[in-house]
């Protein structure tokens, strides 16, 4: 755009999820069942560690022949299906590490470029909303030169690892590994930490196969909830049924999407399973997952037909406002709060609860939901925002990825369309054009509520800027003209031939857009020469 604003992207209907995962607890496991699960998980976990080490050593030289060779080696130590699951999980983990490495390089490059630019500016030079200015003092300038050297060294090392295909992966998690050195701060005993570490490194997951019995030959779950595991070759002595299988005493019955899962099992469709232990709760869980066929999304015009709900995402609440198809706010704004303090399970439950209330509101009115297509992966850098620690903490704490994933899956389950809009200037323009007009003596409209209106109008295809109302008494001399005029609608009316009144001959009438038509000092109403005679002074 000519005034320096970036181009706003087009809105689009968000496609639904491509997969589904449900979880249920394995209740009633005996001591023997838990022992077998731990032995199988530890054995397969050691194989997964060795396979990951071999894959990382191959680097960019890896090919299909190397993949097949690794799988043949693992088949003799487990089974052909276990070997396939192990090598596939290894490949996915290596690919995920590569994507994270690329994002790390991009973040380092952004930080280096920002510091270099600010170091080249004079001290104390003011910045703009788009770019920071020079550093405030000589001391800060010197500290940033040292940090620039550190970032350049890290960037050089990261680029070398990327070129060589080296990745650094920790099976079990880097955070849990570092906790081993800070047991006192984490209030953990070494035995408790060891139990978590071993549980996180176990491997008990298998991909499904369509056409096989119940959709999975390795971890088989029947319609009645019976769970059986194909034991690896060295552990077949532990089998309690035929064909080297072990049947658990526990039964599963998925409360959520149970009917869908049962239909897939009856049809022998592929279903993947994963068994894991929660050491803190002393429980075992089984997670089932399967792919969902792509669903044709609704056209954007059909979504806009009945209006929608604009939602503004914030660090502690969702601000929502209902809009009709013309972009006019309807009713009062709604706010769905959540508390992101505490543990991850608590935060996730808070997000789900807020989204559930939002979706129930949309379901009652049969409306779509418009949200911002937010991405803060490159916005939390300390180099980008400098001393604005409070703002950095704010955007870092916003659960953007969690909200987006939860909202897409939950909305698809209820059949509610989602419209993603460009987040550019929604808060600024919403506060500028909508906050004050929507504030009344009985309602205080916040900046977030106004942003929700801006998001909804952008999703509906309307401009965020509102049209200014005409003068109250339609007297422009008293109140002035409109501050906003739509081209082609509010211009002077075209000249119509013929008399405007019965007393004016053709061609002599005043134009509606001609200021001479106004009775003002020094201006004549008619185009022709006309002047009133002076009154006689004598009686």
Kindly summarize this structure in a few lines.
This protein is of the alpha+beta class and 539 residues long. Helices cover 42% and strands 14% of the residues.
Helix/strand structural class: alpha+beta
- What is the average of the pLDDT values? 83
What is the topology, as strand order, of the major beta sheet?
A: 1-13-12-9-10-11
Please give the count of helices: 16
Binned, the helix content reads 40-55%
Major beta sheet summary? 6 strands, mixed
Computed over alpha carbons, the radius of gyration is 34 Å
Instruction: Give the distance, in angstroms, between the N- and C-terminal Cα atoms.
Output: 73 Å
Which word captures the global form?
globular
% residues in beta strands: 5-15%
Weakly predicted, low-confidence segments: 484-490, 509-520, 522-532
In N-to-C order, the SSE pattern is EEHHHHHHHEEEEHEEHEEEHEHHHEHHH
| SS elements, strand count | 13
Quaternary assembly: single chain
């Amino acid at each position: 755009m000519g005034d320096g604003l970036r181009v706003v992207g087009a809105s689009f209907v968000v496609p639904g999820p491509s997969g589904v995962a449900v979880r249920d607890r394995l209740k009633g496991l005996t001591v023997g069942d838990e022992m077998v699960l731990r032995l199988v998980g530890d054995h397969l976990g050691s194989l997964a560690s060795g396979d990951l080490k071999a894959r990382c050593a191959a680097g960019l030289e890896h090919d299909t022949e190397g993949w097949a060779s690794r799988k043949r080696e693992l088949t003799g130590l487990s089974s052909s299906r276990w070997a396939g699951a192990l090598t596939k999980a290894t490949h996915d983990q290596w690919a995920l590490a590569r994507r994270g490495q690329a994002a790390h390089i991009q973040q380092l490059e952004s930080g280096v470029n920002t510091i270099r630019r600010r170091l080249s500016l004079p001290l104390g030079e003011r910045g703009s909303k788009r770019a920071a200015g020079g550093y405030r003092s000589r001391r800060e300038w010197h500290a940033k030169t040292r940090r620039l050297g550190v970032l350049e060294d890290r960037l050089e090392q990261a680029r070398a690892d990327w070129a060589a295909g080296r990745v650094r992966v920790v099976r079990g998690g880097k955070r849990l590994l570092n906790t081993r050195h800070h047991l006192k701060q984490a209030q953990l005993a070494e035995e408790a930490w060891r139990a978590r570490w071993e549980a996180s490194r176990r491997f008990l997951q298998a991909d499904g196969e369509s056409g096989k019995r119940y959709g999975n030959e390795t971890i088989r779950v029947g319609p009645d909830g019976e769970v059986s595991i194909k034991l690896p070759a060295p552990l077949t002595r532990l089998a309690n049924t035929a064909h080297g299988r072990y049947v658990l005493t526990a039964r599963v019955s998925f409360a959520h999407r149970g009917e869908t899962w049962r239909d897939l099992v009856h049809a022998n469709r592929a279903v993947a399973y994963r068994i894991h232990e929660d050491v803190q709760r002393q429980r075992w869980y089984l997670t089932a997952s399967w792919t969902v066929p792509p669903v044709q999304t609704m056209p954007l015009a059909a979504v806009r037909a009945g209006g929608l709900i604009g939602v503004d995402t914030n660090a502690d609440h969702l601000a929502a406002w209902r809009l009709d198809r013309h972009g006019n706010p309807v009713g009062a704004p709604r706010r769905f709060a959540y508390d992101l303090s505490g543990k991850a399970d608590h935060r996730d439950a808070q997000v789900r609860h807020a989204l559930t209330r939002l979706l129930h509101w949309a379901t009652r009115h049969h409306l779509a939901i418009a949200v911002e297509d937010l991405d803060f992966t490159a916005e939390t850098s300390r180099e980008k925002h400098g001393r604005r620690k409070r703002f950095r903490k704010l955007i870092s704490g916003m659960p953007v990825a969690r909200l987006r994933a939860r909202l897409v899956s939950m909305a698809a389950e209820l059949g509610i369309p989602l419209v993603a809009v460009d987040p550019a200037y929604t808060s600024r323009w919403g506060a500028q054009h909508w906050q004050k007009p929507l504030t009344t003596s009985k309602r205080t409209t916040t900046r977030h509520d106004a942003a929700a209106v801006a998001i909804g109008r952008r999703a509906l295809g309307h401009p965020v800027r509102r049209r200014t109302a005409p003068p109250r008494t339609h007297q422009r001399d008293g109140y002035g003209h409109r501050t906003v005029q739509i081209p082609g609608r509010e211009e002077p009316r075209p000249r119509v031939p013929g008399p405007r009144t019965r007393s004016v001959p053709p061609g002599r009438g005043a134009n509606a857009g001609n200021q001479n038509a106004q009775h003002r000092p020094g201006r004549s109403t008619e185009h022709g020469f006309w002047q009133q005679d002076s009154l006689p002074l004598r009686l």
